[in-house]
Each structure stands twice: as structure tokens, then as C-alpha cells.
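User: I'm designing a mutation panel for Probable allantoicase and want to avoid disrupting the core. Could you give me a predicted structure to guide residue selection? Please restate the sequence first so the numbering is unambiguous.

Assistant: Good idea. Sequence first, for numbering, then the predicted C-alpha cells:
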Amino acid sequence: MANPILDADAPAFARRYMNLADPRLGAQALFATDEFFAPKERMLEPQPAVFIPGKYDEHGKWMDGWETRRKRTTGYDYCIVKLARAGVIHGIDIDTSHFTGNFPPAASIEACYSASANPQEDGDWREIVPATTLKGNHHHYLEIADGRAYTHLRVNIYPDGGIARLRVYGQPKTDFSRVERGTLLDLAAIENGAYLVAANNQHFGPASQMLMPGRGVNMGDGWETRRRREPGNDWAIVALAAPGVIRAIEVDTAHFKGNFPDRCSLQAARVTGGTDDSLVTQAMFWPVLLDEQKLAMDNVHRFEKEIAALGPVTHVRFNIFPDGGVSRLRIFGELE
């Protein structure tokens, strides 16, 4: 069965960047004009929305998302969301899964950068998604071409209804100027600005989950490929948060027991020019950063002396042999 976390029709930004609206990283739904049928916090839940036939609560049918009552006056409903990190937004998914006769006919999104506890009143709001027609039970992937960093969103629904999930894909804005020279940083951490460029297979779990903070909570919280039935190996390419000299690598197979990779290796390079898509071919020929190393189940593997001296690099290709699951990948380095 295909992984329900990964929508087959999702654009590259949904697979590449972190969800800045993930409550596990600190995102919050701060305010909603109405949440009679379903609370605003449910719209940010990291797992895919579900539908439970026959489940009702004191307000009516239980729905997995944010849902307002039927508006009998003029105006519209909206929700203020604080992002987990200030960041540049590359794309948004307004997901109306399981909302059929109760989805909003249209929505728009505004954004602001604010340190205020109440940006609703004093934020410099800019429209990043103009009023857009919505469909029921549908992912609405909207690419954002705006290089500014934002901290808050205002999700407007016209006039009322329900949104199952809101995903805000982007890169955190990280200031490395204050990092002391020689400090080791996790350059593969998604919260530092690293992102997934590509992976050859993500059947059971997105490769971008390897870059998330903390240890994986279960086997679904990591990168897992299908069982390989042909020669070769699986791989994932990661753009590091900043150029750096790699000093230590951690490969964590937490919760992967009968399905961890037998071995792993890493290649790395300093990349200039081209596009992310052009790296897939190039990466096959990058120098070896870490030779093949044996892996064990449910274990943190740390490598230091095994790392080759390649100088500052910007990207790594993580190879697993032949297939399997890895919970987290940490690439510790010094900024150049």
C-alpha cells in the first residue's frame, strides 16, 4: 500500500521543504472568528485528515479539521496562524479532505512578519494567496513566489466552512552571522534551513522526515523505501543549511528493526549553479564523504574518524544499501 502521507500529485515544494505550520515544531493556531463545529488547532495536525462515519459530538458531525458554523450574516471567517519559524514560504496546501457539502467556496491567505503577541492588529499584512476557488475533498497546492520571510498567516475563508489541513512549505530564515567560528551545527537540520532535493523512493515515509528535530516517535516518523527487488540501492539528496566542513555524521535507525538498511554511505560536493533537478545526475559522481558502513537496527550510529576531508560542501547524497528505513540523518559541520 502506498504511503498515505505522500500525495502522488503533490508538487516538488511539498516533498522538498519543511511544513512551517507543524505544531510539533512550535506552530500555533492563535485565533479564529468561529470554530463551532471543529477547533482551529485540528487544521494543523501533522497526520493526514481522516473521516470517521457515525462519529458525532455535542455540536454535530465530528470533522477532522477547522470548521465554522453556517454564517447567517455578512462577512467571512478567518484564522490567525503563528508559524513554527520565521521563514520564506515556497508553497501552501489548503486541504479540504472529507469536507464535501461544507467546504468554503473560496479562500485567500495574508502573511506578515511580526514579533508581536497580537499581529492581527499591528501586523503589516500582505496578500500571498489571492481569493482562490476551492473544491471539496481536494488538495489545493499553491506555489508562492515571494522571497520575504513571514511569521504569521491569516487564512480567510469565504464565507464559512471547513478546512481539513493547512500545510505551509518553506525554509526557515536562519542567521548564521552570530555563530562562533568552530561551532558544530547540524547542517542537515530542517529547522536550520536544510531541505530535501530528491529521493529515488519514498514509498512508506518521506525522506524529508530524516531532517526533523528529535528522535523519531515511531517507524512512520522517518524515511522508508519499498523492498528493492532489483539491483542497485536507494538514495536521498539533501541541500545543507549552509556550506560547511563536515566533522561528524549520525545515522539513526530508531524503530527500524526488520527493515533497516544493511549499510549506508555518503557522497558530498560544493555545488554552484544549476538547479535542484540537475543535481540528481551529478550526485552519482560526487566524491565519497563516508565509505560504506554497516548499520544495526534501532540504533544511533556516529561517524567521525571515518569521514573524508573534502573541505566545505553544500550538498550530500545519502545512500542506503539496498533499501529500508532510517529515522534521522544528522550532518554536523563547521561553517566555512
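For picking mutation sites, this is relevant: The chain is about 5% helix and 40% strand. The chain has a mean pLDDT of 94.
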